[in-house]
Design a protein that fits this description.
Elements (H helix, E strand, L loop, with lengths): L1 H16 L17 H11 L5 E4 L2 E4 L2 E5 L5 E4 L5 E4 L5 E8 L4 E9 L4 E6 L2 E11 L11 E6 L2 E6 L2 E3 L4 E6 L2 E6 L2 E3 L3 E6 L2 E6 L2 E3 L3 E6 L10 E6 L2 E3 L20 E6 L2 E6 L2 E3 L4 E6 L18 E6 L2 E3 L8 H10 L6 E3 L13 E2 L8 E3 L35
């Protein structure tokens, strides 16, 4: 496919660039290519080991870009200096689509795409460093769904990056394995940072603020890759994620209540520690089954219940002043108190003990609420004693990616 594209583009360039008048042998001036044309040509003609430079300035694009050559680096002069702008995009579903291994992108911005900003699909060894994706008009359901978006990939490093304004998730890694998201900022997205249907992820030293939900760790049915597990969320600042949900109608993330700090859904072996949570109006941390509230599952291979969730040594300040989850609202109307810092939905798979579903350490002092399945808003528990336990600490993620330096 790449060879066909090169031949086609070369023919077009030959028509544009080469010509003579047989009648008087006059030289026809060579038309000057735009940066959009030369940049796409560099992507098409790239070889393994190529470094494609993006100079400082705002560079306008009217159609999607794509790369399918392994071992390529795209490098700008800085995330606020080298800007790929798609404000006038007329064609394509993404800003940049990459389907290649050993890919590095760094020090640039991708703005105002029709769809996803940076999508990386079925790739191994992906490094995204100091990249900004943004929709500059602020939260809007017409914005693209995803900012930084690796999916079905392995050995993924996202660091020092910024995602703003995505109508689904700002930084999203889905159906992937061996993942690090660190030292990044997600703001004014529906979901700030989302790890979905993925395994072995470290999410640390990030800032998630002013999103609808700060950090999401999900496992959803009816996807090709399932069984999300083994994610560590630590040393993050997760605060004031109170932005109104602006996801398009029908999007799964449209169910995330505004004011949610960390949401763990149907995932296993999750460790949450040394984070700072504050002023998330709905709830600072919530853990629940996909079936909470009566939702049904039509995927026989899907496990909807979270298990082995270990939450310890976090700092909580404020939050819970404006419950928005449907079951929390029903409880709050009766209780008339702020949402406790950690809420568990309370549903357990048949035959399982609740004591190891959520562990809060040997001396849990954090405020806690067990909704007991949400059947009766008066029949809840605030007692953390059944969750006085520890679980084995998860191992740090080590990537094979050459970009993990």
């Amino acid at each position: 496919m790449n060879t066909i594209k090169r031949i086609f583009f070369s023919v077009i360039l030959s028509v544009l660039l080469v010509g003579c008048n047989p009648s008087n042998d006059r030289q026809i001036p060579t038309p000057e290519l735009s940066f959009e044309e030369t940049f796409q040509l560099q992507l098409i003609e790239a070889e393994p080991g190529s470094v494609i430079e993006v100079p400082a300035g705002t560079h306008n694009f009217s159609r999607s870009l794509s790369l399918d050559v392994p071992g390529v680096t795209i490098r700008g002069a800085g995330m606020n200096q080298s800007i790929l702008s798609f404000s006038n995009q007329m064609q394509g579903a993404e800003g940049l689509l990459v389907t290649a291994n050993d890919f590095v992108i760094e020090d640039l911005a991708i703005e105002n795409t029709i769809g996803d900003a940076l999508k990386i699909n079925e790739s191994t060894n992906v490094t995204i460093r100091r990249v900004r994706t943004e929709w500059t008009n602020g939260p809007d359901s017409e914005n693209g769904a995803y900012g930084i978006y690796p999916v079905q990939s392995r050995n993924v490093l996202i660091e020092g990056s910024v995602a703003i304004g995505a109508a689904d998730a700002g930084i999203y890694v889905g159906q992937s394995s061996q993942i690090i998201v660190r030292n990044s900022r997600a703001e004014y997205n529906v979901a700030g940072i989302e790890i979905e249907n993925s395994t072995f992820a470290d999410v640390y030293e990030n800032v998630a603020t002013n999103n609808t939900g700060g950090i999401l760790v999900f496992d959803l049915p009816n996807l090709e890759v399932q069984g999300g597990q083994s994610t560590r969320v630590f040393n993050n600042e997760i605060y004031r994620n109170n932005t109104k949900n602006f996801a398009p109608e029908g999007a799964t993330v449209g169910n995330v209540p505004p004011g949610t700090g960390l949401l763990i859904l149907a995932n296993d072996n999750i460790e949450v520690f040394d984070n700072q949570f504050w002023d998330n109006g709905n709830v600072n941390v919530m853990i629940y089954s996909y079936t909470l509230g009566g939702r049904t599952v039509d995927d026989p291979n899907y496990d909807p219940f979270p298990e082995q969730i270990y939450i310890h040594d976090n700092d909580f300040r404020g939050g819970g002043t404006a419950p928005r989850h449907r079951l929390l609202l029903a409880w709050h109307e009766i209780a008339q108190v702020n949402t406790p810092n950690i809420v568990w939905g309370g549903l357990v798979a048949d035959g399982n003990s609740s004591s190891k579903i959520v562990c809060l350490g040997q001396n849990p002092s954090v405020s806690f609420l067990n909704l007991k399945g949400g059947i009766d808003p008066e029949d809840v528990s605030f007692d953390p004693t059944p969750h006085k336990c520890t679980l084995p600490r998860l191992a740090p993620i080590e990537l094979d990616s050459p970009g993990d330096d």
